[in-house]
Specification:
- With 374 residues, the chain is an alpha+beta fold.
- It has 3 domains: 117 residues, 3-Layer(aba) Sandwich (Rossmann fold), CATH 3.40.50; 108 residues, D-amino Acid Aminotransferase, Chain A, domain 1; 68 residues, 2-Layer Sandwich (Dna Ligase, domain 1), CATH 3.30.1490.
- The protein has 12 helices and 17 strands.
- The protein has a 7-stranded mixed β-sheet, with helices on both faces.
- Helix 1 packs across helix 12.
- The longest helix has 17 residues.
- About 2% of the residues have low confidence.
């Protein structure tokens, strides 16, 4: 039986949402015949383990009684005062939303320890965690994005009038977003200078950077997901997510009571538009060598299709976009894990130059003489 570690939690504004995604993944993988174990990233930077935990309720007050602080040593979890090996994993799955779980840090830790991760690796995760970088990447692939500009906290503090002028040049309303947050947290529509100031103040309470973006009147929110399967990219149908507000809110994403009216799959789009969105999603997935399941979000208006952002750890791992049943979700996660296990990276040769054995470090990049450093 294959053993899979499912990581979730973390010190982010979305850590509670990741508990929902993580426990769902644990139970689906267990139903698929895997020995799946939840590993909680605590807000204190430690890892916590409780083998029998399986529901959201088990993690409401975590870490608490029954949770063991652990470390990752190679592919093994080690814990307790005697640093006992608890288990050795074959693979891991990242269910962390936001923070150092989704931004590539967890992927780097897994790679350092030689633990195969059935989720995007560090470069793609770090890139698409930042909305500014995401738009630069999309432009580089020829994918349209909405006009926007980035603002640093220092720039807002020292050159506020310049930022306000740039926003006015777009014409109000504009959308203000923290650069590295998700789940619509901290996103505000500003209809004038006073609201712009309030929106940026909120953004900089939560992040060190923000994006000011042109507002598309009458825009539609369209999502599309993808995952890799033995060299092929599987792309989902398009989903339209509905909102009663100017932008899709956190409450509508996670606290809505009328799921039937919250979204529609497949979205009611012209075939040409739906194909374009699916093609853009595939292009991003393949160009950045993504792994696991990702979800690309787009805006559609009378002006065309615009890339919005890529979620490298989407809510519920976007399983619902590939089928409505728990059975289809179980098969999807099993496929993602098996694909990762079947595509282990070949270990490459590491060259040892022997330069430390030389008495003199010369050359364009070296020192003239080692004695000069003493």
């Amino acid at each position: 039986m294959r053993t899979v570690l499912v990581f979730f939690g973390g010190n982010s504004n979305e850590s509670e949402i990741s508990v929902i995604t993580g426990t769902l993944a644990v139970n689906l993988l267990r139903a698929a015949g895997y020995a799946a174990y939840p590993v909680l990233l605590g807000g204190d930077g430690k890892l916590y383990f409780r083998a029998e935990a399986r529901s959201v309720a088990d993690f409401r007050d975590a870490p608490g009684k029954g949770f063991l602080a652990v470390t990752l040593e190679g592919r093994s979890l080690v814990g307790g005062r005697l640093r006992r090996k608890l288990l050795t994993a074959d693979c891991a799955l990242n269910c962390c939303h936001g923070g150092m779980g989704e931004d590539g840090t967890l992927a780097a830790i897994a790679r350092w320890n030689g633990l195969p991760l059935a989720s995007p690796d560090t470069p793609a995760s770090a890139l698409f965690m930042n909305k500014e970088y995401s738009q630069i990447a999309a432009r580089g692939l020829g994918i349209p994005v909405v006009r926007s500009f980035a603002v640093s906290e220092r720039e807002w503090r020292e050159r506020r009038s310049d930022v306000e002028r740039r926003a006015e040049a777009f014409g109000y309303p504009v959308i203000v977003k923290p650069s590295r947050l998700g789940s619509s947290i901290g996103i505000t529509v500003a209809r004038g200078t006073d609201e712009l100031r309030s929106a940026l103040s909120l953004a900089f309470r939560l992040d060190t950077g923000a994006l000011v973006e042109e507002y598309l009147d009458g825009k539609r929110d369209i999502n599309c997901a993808a995952y890799g399967l033995y060299g092929e990219t599987v792309v989902s149908s398009c989903e339209e997510v509905f909102s009663r507000a100017d932008i899709l809110t956190f409450q509508e994403k996670y606290e809505g009571t009328d799921a039937a009216r919250a979204s529609k799959i497949p979205a009611d789009l012209p075939e040409e538009t739906a194909s374009k969105i699916r093609d853009y999603t595939r292009l991003i997935y393949e160009s950045f060598h993504c792994r696991g399941v990702v979800r690309a979000d787009f805006l559609v208006s009378s002006e065309g299709v615009f890339f919005n952002e890529l979620n490298t750890v989407p809510g519920s791992l976007a399983c619902y976009l590939f089928g409505e049943s728990l059975s289809s979700a179980k098969e999807l996660l099993a496929s993602v894990v098996e694909e990762r296990l079947a595509t282990a990276e070949e270990k490459k040769e590491t060259i040892r130059t022997g330069i430390l054995n030389n008495g003199v470090f010369a050359g364009a990049k070296g020192c003239k003489n080692r004695r000069e450093m003493v």
